[in-house]
Amino acid sequence: MTSPQSGVHWRGFTNRRDLPKHELVQMGKNICEAATGPGDGVKDIFLEIADDCEQISKWNTAQEPRRAFGKGTSLYHQDPVSNCFWGDPVADVYAVIARENSCILALADGVSWGEKSRLTARCAVAGCLQHLNTHLFTANTTLDIMEVLYDAFKNAHEFIIKKDGLLTTLCAAVVCPLKDFGKWGLCVLNVGDSLAFTYKKEKGVQEVTFGSHCDIKSRDMRCPGGSLGPYDGNNPDLSNLTFSFTILDTGDIVFLTSDGVSDNFDPVISQCENLSFARANSLN
């Protein structure tokens, strides 16, 4: 399926090979900038499983980050007695690794809150990154990247189970250089309600993960709609697992958000617009 307004293509697991196939320019391995958080993000977890720990050496070290940036904060109320925020620690975890001509972004939102939920999200992002850092550079086409992303999700899920984790969403995106257009491709895989967006100067903000909830008439903020982790025994809930692809121009911005951002700024949920208008138009 394709959204004609945005040029975004999406497929489920069974027909993911029907997505556009573009040949890639060879992706360089040198890391230019990297960021993870909130706090230490996946640093400690990544050290446990990464084959090459040198990959984290540039995380959060850029004085003025231009290509890799993230931020996490709590939107919960503050307890007037303890001065702590309800829901701490924040169970959202992000990581961005920008290389010479490519970039990896990953975001997980642990279901519920607390230490165990945060650990689960950290395991998801770290497991996903570990696989991507090892196998991404074998990809020759955008469809190859989709397969690497899927295997990275399997690796993330297995790591969650190994660490006795709970449930978490996961969204991972790869920006890659395309041969045939002299432009960039954006390959995304997500499960749950952590979503991917682009900002284009001419069109504003557009959702790339549109297909992961396109058939849902009204979203329930209490339910992520899918998750990694032991949902059914040791099996994940892949009910909305969605592969998405779009083409980027130089200067476009790619960003991921958890539902703390996307739900609070969704014009349908905030009752600023009706469903048909908001889903057919880019958001300014």
Number of separate helices: 5
- Class based on secondary structure composition and strand pairing: alpha+beta
The ordered string of helix (H) and strand (E) elements is EEEHEEHHEEEEEEEEHH
**Order of strands across the widest beta sheet?**
1-2-12-7-6-5-4-3
Largest sheet: 8 strands, antiparallel
Helix content: 10-25%
* Gap between N and C termini: 24 Å
Characteristic key phrases:
single chain, 284 residues, alpha+beta, eight-stranded antiparallel β-sheet, three-stranded antiparallel β-sheet, 5 helices, 13 strands, 22% helix, globular, disordered C terminus
Explain this structure to me?
It contains 5 helices and 13 strands. With 284 residues, the chain is of the alpha+beta class. The strands form 3 sheets. An 8-stranded antiparallel beta sheet has the order 1-2-12-7-6-5-4-3, with helices on one face. A hairpin with a 2-residue loop joins strand 10 (227-232) and strand 11.
The gist of it:
The protein has 284 residues and is an alpha+beta fold. Helix content is 22%, strand content 26%.
List the helices and strands and how they pair.
Elements: E1 2-3, E2 8-11, E3 31-37, H1 43-49, E4 92-99, E5 103-109, H2 115-135, H3 142-162, E6 170-177, E7 184-191, E8 195-200, E9 204-207, E10 227-232, E11 235-237, E12 242-248, E13 253-257, H4 259-265, H5 275-280
Antiparallel strand pairs: 1-2, 2-12, 3-4, 4-5, 5-6, 6-7, 7-12, 8-9, 8-13, 10-11
